[in-house]
Amino acid sequence: MMQDMSDLFDAAADEHRQRLAPLADRMRPRSFDEVAGQARLVGDTGRLRRQLAQGHVPNMVLVGPPGTGKTTIARLVAAEANMALEELSAVAAGLADVRRVVEQARERLGGSGRQTVLFLDEIHRFNKAQQDALLPTVEAGAIRLVGATTENPYVSINRALLSRLVTYELQPLLREELVQLLERATSDSERGLARGGPIELGEGTCEAILERVGGDARGALTLLEAASLLAADRVVLPEHVHEASDRRRIDFDRAGDQHYDHASAYIKSMRGGDPEGALRWLAQMLVGGEDPMFIARRLVIFAAEDVGPAKPMALVLATAALETVRSVGMPECRIALAQATRYCAEAPKSRQAIEDIERHMSAVRSGGTADIPLELTNRAGAKEARAKANLAPEPHHD
């Protein structure tokens, strides 16, 4: 009787959670057929789906931007393989939590013969020691590890651990895939917005949402729900989207791939003589929260290495921008950075300085140091000075 009451309470709780959950959570796919995008992984002929059909669940890491389906796919992997699912986030969890899950997985395997999928979100947040500690867990076989990361796994995950994981890369959703997702969420009367009555998307609404969220499906559904709450007549218009989110999405992470990609685009634009492109990447870095000292140092290096003697004033201006960043800071230093960026981008380029020093350093490394001629030494200078002063020569010591 007590068990029956517990089941009733659990069912009621699940019903309340489903009713109160955000739209993005309610619309989470219940099968691979409902997953938007990622066809090459989980479509009818997707490689992950084919592997699961053969009864094989590899230890894996799912790599991709936010809102591309990493959590959804991890949950569906467990469901398709009829495995128990345990979820942890490396942001808040530690090795003690992992060990607890592993011990429960061993007991489950010994009791019912059922394996466990451990979904470890933000796996790159584990430090080297924590990642190393996962190795025995992966090799023991009691669990199948499914990690998820938005970072480059070849940089953020230890080589020893990564070699034991199959990497699946998820792509940002295409425009037509996101539009289909938004229309499905609008028309769905069970889980979507239509469960409260008919609702429509006005002309241009999907475009207004997409230009703010990029390829982020979760972000698109979240913004759609927020905009729908402002549509009194149940017709969601672009102005409702603008009111719900008055700022476009800024794709930047000063500690991740975006940091390096933006720095690369900034340097290559200056190198290619494209001041407008360089200024665009500079602006995106500054708005995204990049450290202006990092930008200024890259600018100084570029002025010396790429512009060099073709326009020596570039190094003077870049160094002045660096000092401006150090002494003034944001937001005023953005002006000096912009001035130096345009100057360096438009300047003629010469790599003579770096080629000169590299040539001579290479000669030293391969041939060793050369003897310094006497006339170039400090001793020669001292001898001439003493002679002019009519002083006795310095004593010579063997």
Short description:
The chain is α/β, with parallel strands linked by helices.
Commentary on this structure:
The chain has four domains: 132 residues, Rossmann fold (3-Layer(aba) Sandwich); 70 residues, Orthogonal Bundle (Helicase, Ruva Protein, domain 3), CATH 1.10.8.60; 90 residues, Up-down Bundle (Zinc Finger, Delta Prime, domain 3), CATH 1.20.272.10; 37 residues, no CATH class. It is 57% helix and 8% strand. The chain is built from 20 helices and seven strands. The strands form two sheets. A five-stranded parallel sheet has the order 2-3-4-1-5, sandwiched between helices. Strands 6-7 form a two-stranded parallel ribbon. Helix 10 crosses helix 12 and helix 12 packs across helix 13. The mean pLDDT is 86.
Write the layout of secondary structure elements.
Elements: H1 2-20, H2 23-26, H3 39-42, H4 47-53, E1 60-63, H5 70-80, E2 84-89, H6 95-112, E3 116-121, H7 128-140, E4 143-149, H8 153-156, H9 159-162, E5 166-169, H10 175-187, E6 200-201, H11 205-213, H12 217-228, E7 235-236, H13 238-244, H14 257-271, H15 275-288, H16 292-307, H17 313-327, H18 333-346, H19 352-367, H20 378-388
Parallel strand pairs: 1-4, 1-5, 2-3, 3-4, 6-7
Descriptors:
398 residues, alpha/beta, Rossmann fold, Helicase, Ruva Protein, domain 3, Zinc Finger, Delta Prime, domain 3, 4 domains, five-stranded parallel sheet, two-stranded parallel ribbon, 7 strands, flat
